[in-house]
Amino acid sequence: MGHAAEGTPFAQYVGSDTLLSLQRTRTGAETEPSFLIITQVMELLFKLAYTEAVRARDQLERDDLPGALRTLGRLRRTCMSLHGAWEALGSMGPTEYADFRDALGDGSGFQSYMYRHMEFVLGHKVPAMAELHRGHERVHRELLATLGEMSLYDAALRLLWRRGLPVPPSSVERDWSRPHPERDEVVAVWHTVYTEQEKHADLYVLAEALLDVAFELGRWRATHLLTVERLLGSKTGTGGTSGVTFLRRAAEHRFFPELWAVRADL
Length: 266
Ligand code: HEM
Fold this sequence. Notes:
- The chain contains 14 helices and no strands.
- With 266 residues, the protein is an all-alpha fold.
- The chain has a single domain, classed as Methane Monooxygenase Hydroxylase, Chain G, domain 1, CATH 1.20.58.480.
- The termini are far apart.
- The structure holds protoporphyrin IX containing FE (HEM).
C-alpha cells in the first residue's frame, strides 16, 4: 500500500509540505530569510529557463518556428522574473549581509549547477564549470550530458542553414560540448537576415527573440554585480574568486555573441 496523499489538492500538486520545509536559515539574522528564499526562487527560475530553452531548441529542430517563438516569449518573461527577483534583496546593507555571511561557509551561487545547465543549453559551454561538480556523481553526469547536447543557439543556426543561408558546415554539425567559436561567416549570415528582413521575416523575429533573452540575462548579471558590489565592495567571494572583479568580467559575456557582433555592421 502506498501512503495516502496528504493535504488539499493544491498542497499535493505544489508539494507545499516539502517546498515550505526547505527554508532552513542558519542564523537569526533579520535579512537571512529574504536571502535564502530569493536564492531558492532563482534556482527554480533557472530550472524553468532551462526547461523553456530545451523546448525552444527542440521546436527549432522540428522546424516548428511559431512554436519556438511562443516558447522564447515565455523564456524572455522567465528571465525578466529572474531579474525582478533582485528587487527583494536590493535594500540589504553590508552589515546586514555580514550578519549571516559566515554561516554560508564556502557556499556561493558560483556552485549553482542549475545555473550551469541554463548557461550550457543557451550555448555558453565552459567545461570547467561542469568539472567543479566532479565530486557529486549524479550532478556531474547530468551536467556533462547538457554540455554534450546541441544548444538553443546551435539549433537556430541549423534552421538558418536549412533555409538555405550559408552557415558554415562546422557550425551545423560538430562536437556540441565545445564552445562555439565566434565566426565571421555566421555574423555575415545574421547580417543577411537583418538587411533582407522582408525575405527572412520570421528569421528576423527569431534573431530578436534570442536577443531579448540575452538582454534580460545580461540585466540579471549586471544587477547581481551591482548588488554584490554594494554588499561586499572589494572583498573576495565565498566561492573563492576575486568577487566583484570576477563578476565584472562575467557580466561582459553575452549569450549569442554573433547576434551582438552583427550590430556593428548594421
Ligand atoms: C545577495 C548576495 C550575493 C552576493 C554577495 C553574491 C556574491 C557572489 C560572488 C562574490 C560571486 C563570484 C563567485 C565567488 O567567489 O563566490 C558570485 C557568483 C554567482 N552568484 Fe552570487 N551573490 C549573491 C546572491 C546571489 C543569488 C541570490 C544568486 C542566485 C542563485 C546568485 C548566483 C550566483 C551565480 C550563478 C554565480 C556564478 C556567476 C558566473 O559564474 O558567471 N548570487 N556571487
